[in-house]
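Subject line: Sequence and fold of a protein, written as structure tokens
Body of memo: The sequence and its backbone structure tokens, given next.
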Amino acid sequence: MKKLFIISFLLLGPAGWSQNTEKENLQSLIENFFEAFHVQDSTRLKSFAHPDIKMQSVAIDAEGNTELSTSEYSHFLKSISSIPTSTKFEEKLHDFDININGMIANVSTPYSFYVNDDLSHCGVNTFQLMKLKGEWKIIYLVDTRSKSGCK
């Protein structure tokens, strides 16, 4: 019985460590994404994404209706690089919830967004990723945006 336990530990142990390493890799990828975002590096931002990435946002409009908007990643990259250097912006991530299932992963990050040190809005980012040739790429990014309930 003792031998069976040791063999099981040796065979299954690395799978657990591998999962943690993959979670660390995914968290680093998202952190690097936001580092590039904050310095307006559209070339680097593009490198994190699959060429067919999809982007959407869920928000409440002025009448209280929930709206879904879709944007092209190329438009996102252009808008980030066109922010004036006099405008300070920061998206602060509060946590990481990372789930991996083989070649796909999901990373959720609650956030608060600041413009010139003033809270603009808050929400949750949800990144869907796929492993392509041994490298994680963002294939879908959806976020929520709210001006109420921000802490």
Observations:
- Confidence is low (pLDDT under 50) at residues 4-13.
